[in-house]
């Protein structure tokens, strides 16, 4: 048995034997553990905390362990000239990038949700696949959350930009850009002639008829409804139609956004 395995077995035994509702402090439990074991140990910590009502605080440098934790439990402590800065709710990728002082990716792009991420990915893939490989695209939540996050991350010197939905404004000087169009990406995709043709041909579904039934339904739920009708995984379906949408946008519109992002990555 390796050192990491032995240490982990001891920790698990100790955590299971503690009285319910204990306060637990752990320092870098990933030491000498294989990456997959780090992830599984993170999942175990969440499980035991919920099951036995423990409160656990730990320090870690492991992106794999962080990936297993709820986003709201991640707190990054950054030492600055003015003191310790706390960044809340970072993704594992964002935390990894900060710990690597920006060496992991050339730039990190913050978007609002899964649909926005799929659209931006396909826009970058169309124009410059190599640039796509060098960026990390992270779902950061609402436009307000993105604005707060990008302000915090830029203070650390990490190359970061935001790409908000088409119905939100941009601020290129602050590395805040927007997706093509004037609506949320879900609405842009459902309104695209190319996407309508693809969905009709591939799944036999008339998007105009479906959209008429979605009046009053939050647009974030639209693809869930479409995936049920198409009997297709929601994430896969979003990726498919995002690719069709991106390929049929005017080339200048797409290339302009990519150029702006490249320039932003150098600031």
Provide an overview of this structure.
With 267 residues, the protein is of the alpha/beta class. It has three domains: 3-69, no CATH class; 76-180 and 250-265, Rossmann fold, CATH 3.40.50; 185-247, no CATH class. It contains 13 helices and eight strands. The strands form three sheets. Strands 6-5-7-8 form a four-stranded parallel sheet, sandwiched between helices. The protein has a two-stranded parallel sheet with strand order 1-2. It has a two-stranded antiparallel sheet with strand order 3-4. Helix 2 (35-51) links the parallel strand 1 and strand 2 (55-59). Helix 5 packs across helix 12 and helix 9 packs across helix 12 (234-247).
List the helices and strands and how they pair.
Elements: H1 3-17, E1 23-27, H2 35-51, E2 55-59, H3 63-67, E3 75-80, E4 83-88, H4 92-99, E5 107-111, H5 114-127, H6 129-133, E6 135-139, H7 143-155, E7 160-164, E8 176-178, H8 185-191, H9 193-203, H10 207-212, H11 222-230, H12 234-247, H13 251-265
Parallel strand pairs: 1-2, 5-6, 5-7, 7-8
Antiparallel strand pairs: 3-4
Helix pairs in contact: 5-12, 9-12
